[in-house]
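Example record used in the benchmark description.
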Amino acid sequence: IQGTIVTYLGVAVGFVTTFFVLTRFLTAEEIGLARVLVDAATLFIGLAQLGTSSSIIRFYPHFKATSENSDHGFFFWTLIVPLVGYALFTVIYCACHEPLSLWFGEKSPLFVEYYYMVLPMAFFMLYQTVFETNANVRMHIVVPRAVRELITRIGLLIVYLLYAFRVVDINGFVVALCSVYALAMLCNMGYLFSLGNISLRPDWEFLRNNRPLVRQYLLYTGFLLISAVASVLAPTLSSFFITAEMGLNYTGIFAIATYIAVMVSIPYRSMTAIASPQLATAIKENNQRETAHLMQQVSSTLLLIGGMILCLIWLNIDLIFHILPNGETYAAARQVVLMLGTSQLIIAVCSFSSSALNYSRFYAFSLLFSFILTALSIVLNNLLIPHFGMNGAAVSNLIAYAIYFLLITLTVRYTLHAPTFTRQHLKILLLILVILNLNFLWQAYLPINNIWLSSIIRTIVLIGG
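Model output (structure tokens):
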């Protein structure tokens, strides 16, 4: 609950940033530059961390001592493994400079100019995530959540304001963006060490006495590296394709639509941060009943809350673009918001099933499904963006994730014997579909010229539903 409160405080800051600063003071191209830099850094750390985020959650119960306050040197390895990955992918990223410059250069030369700024940003984001996950498995999620959702967003807001009033130029703007993530990393590091019982020394004796566990960890990490090549690409592919094919202006418009749609999945972040370690423990102990109970409870709660947020956004989409500064520019992404919001709902509801599969001995299935997700994203983006632009990117996102999570859900059901969906889920889903379709019926048969009155009535209908 505390984590969720912090998350929504961050949403409030993000709302101010998006609706009253970004769209008013920055051009769509400048918004697109910030977006593609963050997406590139996110893609980079997804590969460089070598699966550390998942392996920390899965293997911490094996390393944690029950009779003493010790992790047997586990924290040390959570620092070293991503550092090796970062060094490896830095070499690869630098080697790709020329071909990527040719791809982005014609439509988005500004990104090519700041190509290497992705490296420091990725480093700070990487270890921000490492320290946050270490705190999560120790059941301390509020402060790291505040750093990610509140402090980082306040820092970004300050950076945007500094650039808006020309206190810093474009070079200072990009450097300041990196500095925000550096601050977030330092905050998480300081908090984690303040908890105590953190050791930077490896426990070689524990490793020698648990060689099968070490082999399992290395095998799992190697699997996650291969899997990440596929799965980490999918969430960022649309931004990169739009940047290369249409330019940073459209990337900026797509980014604003994404900022709106991502609110649907906000409850997922807090809930899974505390539930994932419990899920990993239940699977480790082969407690099928507890595994099924956790998955059903988390998914039904996320479907209800996320679905209502999606309905609230869609019923008031015209008002959102009306009050948005320069809203006529971004209103072109109206349908994009609905499709991306639906994708975010699918991701929020089904990602817990994906985590369950990753924590189990059947995690190899994730590799196959990740490649299917990436292949679908690449093919669909290539086919649809040239013909439908941003709408094509949003449709590609929706179709790819729907198929991916359908495969995940069916696999979890028949391998872990943990059915995710129940009749309760179907009732909630039916309610969401009815409310979403009210918007189409409203526009067709009960149009109201006053946009504020129309939104108030629609919201009342939503609450009644």
